[in-house]
Design a protein that fits this description.
The complex is a heterotrimer of chains A (about 650), B (about 290) and C (about 450). Helix content of chain A is about 55%, strand content about 10%. In chain A, strands 10-11-12-7-13-14 form a 6-stranded mixed sheet, with helices on both faces. The radius of gyration of chain A is 29 Å and the shape is elongated. In chain A, about 55% of the residues are buried. By secondary structure, chain B is an all-alpha fold. Helix content of chain B is about 70%, strand content about 5%. Chain B has 11 helices and 2 strands; from the N terminus they run H-H-H-H-E-E-H-H-H-H-H-H-H. Chain B has a two-stranded antiparallel ribbon with strand order 1-2. The longest helix of chain B is centred in the N-terminal third of the chain and has 32 residues. The relative contact order of chain B is 0.20. Chain C is of the alpha/beta class and about 450 residues long. In chain C, the strands form 3 sheets. Chain C has a 7-stranded mixed sheet with strand order 6-5-7-8-9-13-14, sandwiched between helices. The longest helix of chain C has 20 residues. Chain C is globular. Classes of the chains: A alpha/beta (about 650), B mainly alpha (about 290), C alpha/beta (about 450). Chains A and B meet through helix 5, helix 6, helix 12, helix 14 and helix 16 of A and helix 4, helix 7, helix 9 and helix 11 of B.
Chain lengths: ~650, ~290, ~450
């Protein structure tokens, strides 16, 4: 079943799409001339399509909008062209292209190092600035090698074959064939990347970067890898442009090249791999056609600009995206329907402790009520790497955090033994969430240390902590909203099975040993087996909460932090979740922050109370109930509970 | 190249200040819009250009440069407001990449429209009569108009500062930069604030455009190079920070001027290189706040 | 038998032999007038490039690729007007067209010229794309148009590969007929070397000996070309080079460069910038007071520079140009060209329009003289280097580098009070003959490729 889910997301049998692509590419020389399309135009479209394959992986799948891809197009193109025209490499066009691609990827590593330190709009701006730098370098200081604003001419035509038998490629359809071969291979590789575990992580990264990070993936390394891949595709496309025209133009590195790539990809549809190709076909087609109509000849750029704006506004998913939407029955991955305002308000209500309304009160599915699943497996639990002297699974010493003059937490010492279910309570403003964040590694303490099985994990960050075996489930759902339930659970499992970074780009998801087993086990644990293929956007609120816990569980943690797991739930749901928590205790240490006192006293073996940033009291539930200081702290709230 | 002389050094230092102030003004508009609305307005360069053309038209009709400046501001304001009302305001709920993309597209549309209407030949905007001639500052010979421009820009920046830091509406805008949702929940129509901010940002760009028109040629592409430079300024100064835009702009202007004394070809690249170093060492910029995107 | 024939002849009837003679006469006449040229050509030449496919019908296609957008769009649009005027004259078989190509009737070798215009956006890549399309889709027999040397060189290489004649319009770099020369390209305009060589003695006489020169050189090969040539000739006559500033192409604020020049102690400012850069830098030079203490020299003046900068700034400025409309006062062909252009377009032609016109006429002449469109033969005709009468006097092509040997006009900006009408910006100070300014063939490393 999971196989089916993952397979459906990945588009069925991958080789089907690849075969169709091959057939279409082979048919083009026969069909296109009937429509007046020349080999030259077809080749250009393919080159932009190849350029766009890499860009789509970067932008469509990983969500990084770069306005600087021309830098790599140019680097690859000029390195290839230089080698093929000025050195003795004339006859080996293929080798020249390969070296150019590698050079572009090296440039990608350097530029990525600087630009990926920021994200979002900042990232877009900085890539633009870097591309301008490359442009300037190409035009001026390096002009002896790049030909300056003249470019490099005389790039030879390739010869395909071996010593004894070879074909000299010439301009026209034979050159198209050469380029189409590269495009096909490029497409197959890109397709495999997107379907691989690596590709899944990229998608998760785009969907919810902080959660991907917390799940144990090194987001920085994945982003850099995607960036370098896009650079490589750009470099290869640039080299091929030089071959196509026998000339490497300087404006390959200009800003408008980057801009054109972005526009084409959006128009065609990001996240579809073929979007940039479709966009290029439209762009080049319009450019050619409009130029022939004298009345609007000089206005073709204006028309393209208007088309672009209209498309982004009305058909954000682009041409192919719109087509895909027509053909898929289930809701396509689109923007969440709630306005940002409402979502944000909901989040803040939770922080304020105000329970929100259950959105689907009337529609609780039947299977939800089944809370007595005999857990056949409890899923993997990773064996702790070390052991602390006093048997504490999680401990902290003098944990302090202040912001300026304000102390969120001060001098907290706590020790949680292996296998315990510890509760943490405290009135509003007690500093529970900050404390919890420090334990989880999200926030770096100003003073003090955190120890996981005796190892100091202070300042390591959530990814490393997750890899070491501690996970957290969040108060506000941090799910991968564009994926299904099973796909969500795959993400932490992939981090567990593959470590924080693995460039297994050509591997099939099915080949990841243990993936299905762990996902199955986790689904059972949180009672979501029947909902495995459902997109997150269609889940009921309670199901989402269970998935939230499931995400933390799927990581196979031995220490599990739960931040208000019962938040926003109805009484029935609360009871079920409490049962769930009891079930997942076995073999794990749990730390729970909660407001719901009944649940807390039922669940916890031992409770710590925080007040005004400090540890107020610790003890068994009985001891805490009767502790005067705790009662005072809650201002008599104990009587009513 | 030999060591530059003291007079040359001083004149380049002064010139860098002039260039820098212009960059500060342009970047201030961009950073306010980005800080408050979260929208990186890639059409900012086009608005700069629209100001220059609107001012050119006003100058043709009235013959007064002062009216031309006002005309330029109004022209850019109108286009900016149109932009916001018709398209950009539907994008506030959309991811930031979409906002960049649509402003990028709008920038192209505006530029091409202007090219279609006015053609590609540069439009002449002469230096106004009160700006003609040369002023001697010690050993430095400097065009009078540029000195006046520096003063005008300084006043404009001061005016922006007063608007942002000394008025109620400015406080709302600064609060909006911090947390626009909160401002909305406090009962203030945050969308009207957005409109105001967008208008002010556009007007600033247009003002810079017409002010700068006598110095360069007024063509449809004139805004493009300023756009990239203002990005660099914002990155150096810190996104969303008004003081950052000012300081960043002046630093950028000085880097360009002083580098040109040694190697005129590398003056712009040096700016990019310093931006790269700053990114590695202090990614949030000089005045930016860590963690703010 | 013979008695019968003689009898028939005496009666005035037609005999087989006479008929054959008549037929031969008709056929010969047609061949000479070019009407059956196609038949003759098909018999003589193997296919190459777009020949004979491009001349199958009654027309021949000319591909025009110029910048219609971007910083050189004004010059590009002017070139288009020049081309259209030339095509109109040729297709009509006007007296002006016949003055250039005496054997011309209507069209070239009887074929009407059809044309296509593409916007090359001053980008070599876009130009190459547009030209590829003209060649493959429209079967163009001739491609023309350029403002930037980078574009001209790229286009030249492509057309050479495709065995199609390419005629650049504006291209100032020495490399176009130097290391980047092409067997299928022919340049008719003046360029860095010829301008510098023509200009240097004139400014030495006008400004004086032993002067110090500062340069504003746009940082790309055209700029470096002109700088090297100017430096060569000014230093040879005793001037010294004290400063060279290198603003990147497209700079909008030249203040840092101008300040460096202001502090260099130069007497002469040589501004090599072209197009919009020239306009901005000159205006700013005025604002920085440079023009009050230095003489401005523009070795390669762009068309419309005067219109965009204004006569105030232009007075006393020395430069070179390819053509100026006051030549109409000296040369009847020029007079007709200027008058016709003004009638069609409402203003005087810039040299961008003129060079476009000239190149088209010279091509028509070459094809007419070659009696064929066959590319290698046309190339050979150019290379014969015959003297041709034009509106700038007698010119001829140099076979070694495909450069037209033609005059370079040194001009000086007039005082506003001396202007007879609002277009009367310049005095033509000297028309320097082409043979006096051509570079030695070996100087710029031209190696023409094979013709097929």
């Amino acid at each position: 079943m999971i196989l089916r889910t993952l397979a459906r997301y990945s588009g069925g049998r991958p080789w089907v799409a690849e075969l169709i692509t091959l057939v279409v590419l082979l048919l083009c020389p026969v069909v296109l001339p009937l429509f007046g399309v020349t080999a030259d135009i077809a080749s250009r479209i393919l080159i932009w399509g190849l350029f766009g394959l890499g860009f789509d992986i970067l932008f469509g799948y990983t969500g990084l909008l770069s306005f600087g891809q021309a830098a790599f197009f140019g680097t690859g193109g000029f390195v290839s062209a230089f080698l093929l025209t000025q050195t003795g490499l004339q006859n080996d066009v293929f080798l020249g292209l390969v070296i150019g691609t590698v050079a572009a990827m090296a440039a990608g590593v350097v530029v990525g190092f600087f630009t990926l330190r920021r994200s979002g709009i900042y990232f877009a701006m900085i890539t633009l600035a870097f591309a301008e730098m490359f442009h300037f370098l190409e035009l001026s200081p390096l002009s002896q090698w790049t030909g300056g604003e003249n470019g490099l001419t005389g790039v030879p035509m390739p010869i395909v074959g071996l010593e004894s038998w070879h074909i000299q490629i010439s301009s026209g359809w034979s050159l198209y064939g050469y380029i189409a071969a590269f495009f096909f291979v490029g497409y197959v590789v890109a397709h495999r990347i997107v379907l691989s575990p690596f590709g899944q992580v990229l998608t998760a990264l785009r969907d919810n970067t902080p959660r991907a990070l917390a799940t144990g993936h090194s987001v920085r390394k994945y982003k850099l890898a995607a960036f370098v891949i896009a650079a490589g595709y750009g470099g290869l496309a640039g080299g091929l442009l030089g071959v196509l025209q026998s000339y490497m133009p300087p404006d390959a590195v200009a800003f408008h090249t980057s801009g054109q790539l972005v526009m084409q990809s959006i128009i065609g549809g990001a996240g579809t791999l073929f979007g940039p190709l479709v966009g290029a076909a439209l762009w080049l087609g319009l450019q050619n056609y409009l130029q022939d109509v004298p009345a609007i000849a000089s206005a073709w750029m204006l028309i393209l600009g208007v088309v672009f704006v209209v498309l982004i506004t009305l058909f954000r998913q682009g041409i192919l995206g719109a087509v895909k939407q027509l053909f898929t029955k289930s809701a396509s991955p689109s923007e969440p329907h709630e306005s940002e305002l409402t979502v944000e308000l909901t989040r803040r209500q939770h922080i304020a402790g105000v329970p929100d309304e259950h959105p689907n009160q009337d529609e609780i599915p039947d299977h939800y009520l089944r809370a007595d699943t005999p857990a056949k497996t409890r899923g993997l639990i990773i064996v702790p790497k070390g052991e602390s002297a006093d048997g504490a699974a999680l401990a902290c010493r003098n944990l302090t955090k202040h912001y300026g003059g304000i102390y969120a937490n001060e001098g907290i010492d706590m020790s949680i033994p292996e296998g315990q279910l510890r509760g943490i309570i405290g009135p509003n403003g007690a500093g529970k969430s900050t404390f919890f964040k420090m334990l989880a590694g999200e926030v770096v303490p100003t003073e003090g240390h955190v120890f996981l099985h005796g190892a100091d994990i202070t300042g390591l960050g959530v990814t490393a902590v997750s890899q070491l075996g501690m996970s957290k489930s969040y108060q506000i759902n941090e799910l991968f909203s564009k994926l299904t339930v099973a796909q969500n659970l795959a993400i932490p499992v992939l981090a567990r099975l593959r470590g924080e970074f693995r460039p297994d780009m050509l591997r099939s998801l099915d080949k990841v040993a243990g993936l299905h087993g762990q996902i199955e086990a986790t689904l059972e644990l949180v009672n979501l087996e029947q909902r495995a293929d459902v997109p997150v956007t269609e889940l009921a609120y309670g199901e989402k909460r269970r998935l939230e816990i499931g995400l933390a569980l799927a990581n196979a943690p031995n220490v599990l932090l739960l931040d208000e797991p019962l938040a926003g739930m109805s009484p029935r749901e609360r009871a079920d979740t409490v049962q769930l928590l009891k079930q997942i205790r076995a073999g794990r240490t749990l730390v729970v922050v909660e407001h719901d006192m009944d649940a807390m006293f039922e669940l916890a073996e031992y409770i710590s109370v925080l007040q005004e940033g400090r540890l107020l009291a610790e003890g068994t539930p009985e001891e805490i109930k009767n502790d005067q200081r705790v009662q005072d702290a809650y201002l008599g709230g104990m009587e009513e509970v | 190249m030999s060591m530059p002389s003291l007079p040359l050094f001083l004149s380049q230092l002064f010139n860098g200040l002039a260039t820098g102030l212009l960059l500060s003004l342009i970047s201030a508009g961009l950073t306010i819009i980005y800080g408050t609305l979260g929208v990186l307005n890639l059409a900012h360069g086009a608005l700069f250009m629209v100001g220059a053309y609107a001012g050119f038209l006003a100058l043709q009709w009235t013959g007064s440069f002062v009216l031309a400046i006002i005309g330029g501001m109004i022209g850019a304001l109108v286009v900016g407001l149109l932009m916001e009302r018709v398209i950009v305001r539907y994008y506030y709920q959309r991811p930031p990449e979409d906002q960049i993309l649509v402003t990028f597209g709008i920038g192209i549309v505006i530029t091409e429209l202007v090219r279609l209407v006015f053609g590609g030949i540069a439009k002449p905007v002469p230096v106004p009569s009160w700006g003609q001639g040369i002023t001697k500052l010690g050993s430095l010979i400097y065009p009078t108009y540029r000195i006046e421009m520096m003063a005008i820009i300084a006043v404009a920046l001061l005016g922006l500062y007063v608007l942002l830091y000394r008025t109620r509406i400015g406080m709302i805008v600064r609060a909006g930069i911090e947390d626009s949702l909160m401002v909305n929940m406090l009962g203030i129509n945050v969308y009207r604030v957005f409109l105001l901010v967008f208008g002010v940002g556009a007007m600033t760009a247009g003002f810079a455009g017409i002010l700068n028109a006598p110095i360069l040629a007024v063509t449809p592409d004139m805004g493009e190079s300023f756009l990239v430079m203002s990005f660099v300024v914002i990155v150096i100064g810190g996104v969303g920070s008004f003081p950052g835009a000012i300081v960043g702009g002046i630093i950028a202007g000085e880097i360009i001027s002083l580098t040109s004394m040694f190697s005129s070809a590398y003056s712009h690249v040096m700016l990019f290189a310093i931006m790269a170093v700053l990114l590695a060492v202090r990614p949030q910029g000089l005045f930016g706040i860590e963690g703010r995107e | 038998m013979t008695d019968d024939n003689d009898q028939k002849k005496q009666k005035g009837g037609m005999h087989r032999r006479d008929f054959l003679k008549l037929g031969a006469g008709v056929a010969g006449g047609l061949v000479f007038s070019g009407g059956l040229g196609r038949l003759a050509q098909a018999a003589d030449y193997a296919p190459i490039g777009n020949y004979p496919a491009g001349i199958k019908g009654s027309s021949v296609f000319m591909g025009i690729a110029v910048p219609r957008t971007g910083p050189y769009s004004a010059q590009g649009e002017d070139e288009i007007k020049g081309y259209l005027l030339a095509i109109d004259h040729i297709n009509k078989g006007s007296s002006l067209a016949k003055a250039y190509a005496p054997t011309l009737r209507k069209g070239v070798l009887g074929k009407k010229i059809e044309y296509g215009i593409a916007d090359n956006q001053t980008k070599p890549n876009v130009a190459v794309q547009a030209i590829s399309k003209f060649i493959s889709d429209n079967k163009a027999m001739m491609i023309t148009g350029s403002v930037s040397s980078a574009v001209a060189i790229a286009a030249g290489k492509l057309c050479d590969r495709e065995r199609t004649i390419y005629l650049p319009a504006i291209t100032g770099s020495n490399a176009t007929t130097g290391k980047d020369c092409q067997r299928y390209s022919f340049r008719a305009c003046h360029f860095a070397y010829t301008s510098a060589k023509a200009l240097a003695p004139v400014i030495k006489n006008a400004i004086g000996p032993g002067k110090k020169v500062a340069y504003l050189t746009p940082d790309y090969t055209y700029g470096h070309s002109v700088y090297n040539s100017m430096k060569e000739f000014t230093e040879a006559q005793g001037w010294s080079t004290v400063n060279n500033q290198l603003p990147p192409l497209g700079t909008s604020d030249f203040s840092t460069y101008l300040l460096n020049i202001a502090n260099s102690g130069a007497d002469v400012l040589v501004n090599i910038c072209f197009g919009r850069d020239a306009v901005i830098s000159t205006k700013q030079a005025k604002q920085f007071g440079l023009l009050d203490k230095m003489t401005l020299v523009m070795p390669y003046m762009a068309p419309f520079f005067a219109d965009e900068v204004g006569s105030e700034l232009l007075q006393g400025v020395y430069g070179t140009t390819e053509f100026w409309w006051t030549l109409a006062e000296k040369n009847p062909m020029a007079k007709e060209f200027v008058a016709d252009f003004e009638k069609a377009n409402g203003r005087k032609p810039g040299w961008s329009a003129h060079i476009a016109f000239l190149q088209t006429m010279l091509w028509a002449r070459a094809v007419e003289d070659a009696h064929t469109f066959h590319p290698p033969t046309v190339v050979g005709q150019y290379e014969k280097g015959n003297t041709i009468a034009t509106d700038i006097g007698d010119v001829h092509w140099r076979a070694g580098d495909h450069q037209l040997v033609r005059p370079v006009y040194v001009i000086r900006g007039k005082k506003p009070s001396d202007m007879r009408n609002k277009a009367d910006y310049y005095d033509i100070v000297e028309a320097v003959p082409g043979k006096d300014v051509m570079p030695p063939l070996t100087q710029f490393g031209c190696k023409l490729g094979p013709v097929s």
